[in-house]
Design brief:
Radius of gyration: 17 Å
Strand order of the largest sheet: 2-1-3-4
Helix content: 40-55%
Structural class: alpha+beta
Strand content: 5-15%
Largest sheet: 4 strands, mixed
Bound molecules: glutathione
Shape: globular
Length: 214
């Protein structure tokens, strides 16, 4: 059968997640660059979001569904444990990150820097400042969550960790996120360790967002 196709822009944190899932399992894949709401993406996602995936006659959207399909269809290390409790722990963290952390840290904090909408094309300071207390709260809870095992779920590297790593990468491109990460000792150690994984290094998106001086 032809390779898995991952459809989307490599800069998307969710595209990055499914690429890392392939890399961790040793699944060959072709990245098909495509923007949200382009015809090839609209054909896969009812809301035009990335990533999409094609594999033979399987067409999918939504990063969690794609990563689960890859995990179950191929050999290699399990990204979602087989036991009910282990799988539920991973599900819990993917859900928490996708419904709370991503809206705060990516959709609000990061995108205000990357796609500035303030006066004179500058980042909207009020929007950024407004999200910082919530972001700090989330950094604190993540710092606590990884303290015991160095992982979000159980004691191994799972989809829960894969799903968080791109977000931690991106927030450190900007001053407040970098400052929060520096102070969150457990989370900083977690990021430092897992960013050394081959799956992470092989999928770092080109080019990184600019790093404004502090
Ligand atoms: N729940 C989706 C979220 C995907 C998502 O939000 N992708 C972003 C890029 S990181 C996107 O396509 N945004 C365009 C839009 O929302 O219109 C998933 O897990 O795949």
């Amino acid at each position: 059968m032809a390779n898995v196709q991952i459809i989307g822009a490599p800069q998307s944190n969710y595209v990055w997640v499914v690429r890392m899932a392939c890399e961790e399992k040793g699944v060959p894949y072709d990245l098909v660059p495509a923007r949200p709401h382009s015809p090839e993406v609209d054909a896969l996602h009812p809301l035009g979001k990335i990533p999409g995936m094609r594999h033979g006659d399987v067409a999918l959207c939504e990063s969690k569904a794609i990563a689960t399909y890859i995990d179950r269809s191929f050999g290699g290390p399990k990204l979602i444990p087989e036991d009910a409790r282990g799988a539920a722990e991973v599900e819990k963290w993917v859900s928490l990150v996708n419904t709370s952390v991503d809206p705060c840290m990516v959709r609000t904090y990061l995108l205000n820097y990357v796609f500035p909408k303030g006066a004179d094309g500058q980042p909207d300071r009020a929007a950024i400042d407004g999200v910082l207390p919530n972001m700090q709260k989330q950094i604190d809870l993540l710092d606590k969550a990884v303290a015991a095992t160095g992982h979000l779920a159980g004691s191994g590297y799972t989809l829960a960790d894969i799903n968080l790593m791109p977000i931690l990468y991106y927030i450190q491109r900007f001053p407040e996120g970098r400052g929060m990460m520096e102070k969150a000792k457990n989370l900083a150690a977690y990021y430092g360790k897992h960013s050394e994984r081959a799956s992470f290094k092989a999928t770092i998106p080109p080019p990184p967002p600019p790093r404004p001086s502090t």
